[in-house]
Write a sequence for this structure.
């Protein structure tokens, strides 16, 4: 299973649950008659199924399932815990059904119907979750949907933990290596010749250049308290998830949770949301929104494609390597607005750079074509990035993805936390002046977005982006 397939699965899970509960409710009410054509049953008693009651029921089911954590990542939870969540969800769904049937006087929902609904819902959800869990484990065992993890410490606790992850490949973790000043545990050769990837003092520099999803700290608390806290602060600045095998450290990280990773209890520190229902909804909106926008803007896409090809030689689509989630690299798609050798010519124009910080911006850039200037002013050149959103490389809303040149010029680690979420087509920067604001303020706006993120904030940014684009504010 690819990362995109997993994202689609997670995004469609709530819809799948609601569809399943709808079918179970239908069968529970009509019993054997459920196999009679719906039109015949509708003629008998559909008057009890009002649109309002059904809408409230579906909304209540979805909300309650989210609140009890049914859509959180279950990668680290034992199967019994997941079964308990499902049984709780089935019981809650039955109580909600009973309450709404009383409220709307749905006499057809009898105690027998409720009992039947409870049993069928519990059995169906357990079966569905078990099947999905086994499918995901099957995928991880074969090297897909893996998370890169480094372990800080090389003592016996650290090596035992690493061995446990290697044995339990169904958890989906790839041990990149260990961080320590010297090897303190058993023979390192059992983990490969390059098991020690960094010293503790050089960890900050190491994290800047590596693709790391999680960091597990296995250092002794008493003797390495300050070093461990420094590592947690560094990971917080980069937006990287931290798990601790020992006691809780003094940290200001707002999102702390407890899990069982392998056979060891760990405390997780994160400065960004981790697999919450809000992220599922955000990804669902990305998929639906990018699909709809691609269809609605298709005339502009074809027109821009034709104009670029008529105006200058070269491909209509420009691709460039950018920095994405947790510093993963991806190819971004844009309409070409410059001459074909623009990137090679950039070094000749570096002395004219008008932007502060590591980014490159000059007014009246001589590399921009006639059609390109119009496309940039109208932000039409950004439309192909909807394909990146659909693929999962980007989101509709998030910090703008930066080229490798700009990323390598970053001088402050706290700025790198912007890479802990998917980059987006628009963000606070887009509606606050775009290229007209200084680099430091741009970075502060990205941090503000991460600290205040909500679905409502995404919605407001999307709404405010349209007038900003129409006015051409700060477009370059």
């Amino acid at each position: 299973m690819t990362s995109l397939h997993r994202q689609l699965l997670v995004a469609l899970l709530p819809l799948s649950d609601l569809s399943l509960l709808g079918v179970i409710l239908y069968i529970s009410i009509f019993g054997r008659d459920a196999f009679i054509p719906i039109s015949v049953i509708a003629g008998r008693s559909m008057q009890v199924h009002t649109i309002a009651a059904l809408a409230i029921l579906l909304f209540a089911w979805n909300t309650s399932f989210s609140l009890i954590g049914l859509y959180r990542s279950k990668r680290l939870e034992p199967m019994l815990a997941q079964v308990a969540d499902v049984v709780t969800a089935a019981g809650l769904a039955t109580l909600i059904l009973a309450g709404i049937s009383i409220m709307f006087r749905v006499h057809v929902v009898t105690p027998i119907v409720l009992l039947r609904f409870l049993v069928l819902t519990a059995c169906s959800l357990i079966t569905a979750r078990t099947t999905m869990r086994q499918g995901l484990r099957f995928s991880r065992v074969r090297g897909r949907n893996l998370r890169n993890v480094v372990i800080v410490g090389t003592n016996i606790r650290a090596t035992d933990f690493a061995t446990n992850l290697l044995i339990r490949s169904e958890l989906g973790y790839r041990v990149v290596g260990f961080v320590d000043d010297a090897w303190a545990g058993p023979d390192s050769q059992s983990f490969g010749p390059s098991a020690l990837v960094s010293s503790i003092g050089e960890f900050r520099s190491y994290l800047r250049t590596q693709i790391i999803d999680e960091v597990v700290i296995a250092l002794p608390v008493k003797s390495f308290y300050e070093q461990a806290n420094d590592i947690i602060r560094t990971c917080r600045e980069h937006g990287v998830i931290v798990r601790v095998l020992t006691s809780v450290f003094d940290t200001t990280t707002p999102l702390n949770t407890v899990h069982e990773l392998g056979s060891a209890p760990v405390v997780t520190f994160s400065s960004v949301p981790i697999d919450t229902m809000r992220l599922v909804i955000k990804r669902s909106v990305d998929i639906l929104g990018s699909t709809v926008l691609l269809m609605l803007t298709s005339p502009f896409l074809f027109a821009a494609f034709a104009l670029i090809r008529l105006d200058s030689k070269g491909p209509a689509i420009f691709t460039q390597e950018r920095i994405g989630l947790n510093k993963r690299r991806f190819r971004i798609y844009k309409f070409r607005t410059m001459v074909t050798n623009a990137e090679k010519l950039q070094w000749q124009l570096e002395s004219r750079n008008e932007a502060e910080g590591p980014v490159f911006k000059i007014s009246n850039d001589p590399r921009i074509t006639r059609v390109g200037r119009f496309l940039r002013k109208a932000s039409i050149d950004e439309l192909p990035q909807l394909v990146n959103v659909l693929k999962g490389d980007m989101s509709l809303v998030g910090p703008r993805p930066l080229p490798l040149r700009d990323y390598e010029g970053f001088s402050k680690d706290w700025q790198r936390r912007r890479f802990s979420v998917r980059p987006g087509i628009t963000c606070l920067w887009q509606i606050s002046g775009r290229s007209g604001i200084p680099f430091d303020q741009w970075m502060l706006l990205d941090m503000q977005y991460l600290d205040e993120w909500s679905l409502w904030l995404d919605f407001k940014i999307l709404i405010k982006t349209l007038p900003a684009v129409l006015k051409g504010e700060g477009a370059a």
